[in-house]
Amino acid sequence: RLRGLDYSGDEEEFSDEDRSQVILANNQLYEHSILRINYMTYDLHQEQDSINPQNHADIMMLLHENDDNRHPYWYACIIKIFHVNVWYYAPGVSQTAPTHMHVLFVHWFGQDVTFKAGWSVKQLHHIGFFSRDDPDSFSFVDPNQVIWGVHLIPGFAYGQTDTQLGPLFVHPLEDKDMDYMYFYVNHFVDQDMFMDFRGGSVGHKMLEDLYELLQSEGTVENIDENDELMNFLC
Question: Per-residue pLDDT for 218 more than 80?
Fold first, then answer.
């Protein structure tokens, strides 16, 4: 953001010299309890979503990748909400005051690509937490990339595990260091979420290729008849 670069999913590489040009004022991060996201509804009304890490922490963003198994959205769980004041000491840059920036510290979900989901097969999308051993499991995200909160349904049939994260501070005490193995993305929690997965709504940002991707996800001919699928009404 300091360089004015478009977000590309953390694929930009920065050298140690680049990092040394970024200084947090007083070496401090300031924690916040709530993130509020303004958005346009499917029928062109202004609304606001309130997100907090305690009980409404899951978010969705547009994807930034081009692989064959891509899904139009990325999903993450917000662990902490911060703002920072940043000094940027790059050549040719002059600052009279630090830049005020908001950042989210998140734990990423990954899509289960072995699970066929989408309109073609009438199945909810299937996601699960990245393992803590994965270097891409945690990262910082610009809140401007967030569309809004997403409603996830635990995959109760798959049970829980303590191998994804284990005893880390990101767990609420009541979870006892356990995570559900998988979650289903609820397309039908309200009309706006429905249009995010149906595509074509006037008030929603949706690129044409992503709209086509939504319609073709999980085509029937690619399904293994032995797959365990959860049917839902559409």
Answer: no
